[in-house]
Write a structure and sequence with these properties.
The chain is mainly alpha-helical. It has 15 helices and no strands. The protein has a single domain, classed as Growth Hormone, Chain: A (Up-down Bundle).
Length: 396
């Protein structure tokens, strides 16, 4: 008997979305103020970028590891539980921070949690839905994820308005939704993998060549995709009241929420590749104008466009990966995808921070625009080559 749906969605999809919603309320409350908090305790722009890069890249190992391990044992839920649980435990500890190195330590531990949960979570989503609904369901998850990323900065904004520059209140309140996210996993999410997992020893040549080509494109794009923290730093330098910086970040997430599900449905109909190309081009335009101007009004519009980029690319990338690789290796493939993202963020963040501090405030954004244009051209080649091999009925 088919499982009863919730708002037209499979149970796992709905509650995984709820989990991500609560967790993103928590993490984005903190993330939206973290650049300002770090500046207040003496961090440079390079330090801010490097903290994000080190945390993401070090945790990348756990992303690949957890994805492959979840395939081997046939379980996703334990990795999600531990991963989201680490975030809930670390969040209140930010009140102890006195120096930037403390933030690095806590971000590192928090990202280990994200590394443990990310690939198994995406594998659970992919394994819970029919193939012709993959884009829509990843779109829903992204919408829930970004809905939390709206409420989080809005909450941080309100706290800063009533308690100016009192970041400890934000860190403590952010703990509540993080705990709710963990409880949602425990109570409502069911396992979606096989009973005994995969007994096949994984080898790199088991994945198709086009998967690795796509990972290379992701690598090129991510080199220019520095942490959003620099966007917030540049916005703060326009002279805006610092309490409004989380509100500006919320604009970007709101647009992404509104567009994520419709764009996910479109990707199911016309293909993921076209939307990814369009998203890379939008990103290039956004970053070029972030470098070209220093106006709050312009930046507000660019954050709207940045939300469009997020809706076009984030869900489409994961849906495309789901299309490429067989079901019993989905945890492994998502692990490799997240690992490439994480590892590349270290050089990306270092490059962006050094350009910001030692060249000028515009240089990292011009660099990001160039890399996004390069990635879009590579995606065009990906589509052409893929069509040629499809016509020959040959696995690329």
């Amino acid at each position: 008997m088919e499982e009863k749906r919730i708002f037209g969605l499979q149970r796992n999809i709905f509650f995984t979305g709820v989990t991500s919603f609560f967790t993103d309320v928590s993490t984005k409350m903190i993330y939206s103020v973290m650049p300002l908090f770090l500046l207040s305790i003496g961090a440079s722009k390079t330090s801010i970028s490097l903290i994000e890069g080190i945390a993401e890249s070090t945790a990348a190992f756990f992303k690949a590891f957890s994805g492959h391990w979840s395939d081997k044992i046939g379980r996703n839920k334990p990795f999600m539980l531990v991963g989201y649980g680490i975030t809930a435990l670390i969040t209140p500890l930010y009140v102890l921070v006195r120096f930037p190195v403390h933030v690095l330590l806590f971000r590192f531990i928090e990202k280990i949690g994200k590394g443990l949960r990310a690939a198994p979570r995406d594998s659970l989503i992919s394994g819970s839905v029919p193939k012709n609904e993959t884009g829509k369901n990843f779109g829903f998850h992204k919408a829930m994820d970004n809905s939390g990323a709206i409420i989080g900065p809005l909450t941080a904004f309100l706290i800063l308005r009533f308690f100016p520059l009192n970041y400890d209140n934000i860190f403590l309140i952010a703990t509540i939704p993080a705990i709710l996210g963990v409880l949602t996993i425990v109570l409502f999410i069911k396992e979606a993998k096989t009973e005994h997992g995969s007994s096949v020893k994984f080898q790199l040549n088991q994945l198709p060549k086009r998967f690795y080509f796509f990972l290379f494109i992701v690598f090129v794009f991510t080199l220019g995709n520095s942490a959003d923290a620099l966007l917030l730093v540049k916005t703060a330098e326009t002279g805006i009241d610092k309490s409004y910086v989380p509100f500006v970040y919320m604009i970007f997430k709101t647009v992404s929420v509104l567009l994520a599900i419709p764009i996910g449905k479109i990707s199911d109909k016309i293909g993921r590749e076209k939307l990814i190309i369009a998203g890379f081009l939008v990103y290039a335009i956004v970053y070029y104008f972030f470098g070209r101007f220093n106006s709050l009004n312009v930046f507000l519009f660019l954050f709207v466009m940045y939300g469009l980029y997020s809706a076009l690319v984030d869900g489409s990338q994961k849906a495309l990966i789901s299309d490429i690789v067989s079901k019993d290796l989905k945890g492994t493939e998502y692990g490799l995808f997240h690992a490439v993202l994480g590892i590349t963020l270290l050089p990306a963040s270092l490059i962006a921070g050094l350009l910001y501090d030692h060249v000028n405030a515009n240089a990292p954004f011009y660099f990001g625009a160039i890399m996004a244009l390069t990635a879009s051209l590579l995606m065009v080649i990906f589509v052409i080559v893929n069509k040629q091999h499809a016509c020959k009925n040959h696995d690329y």
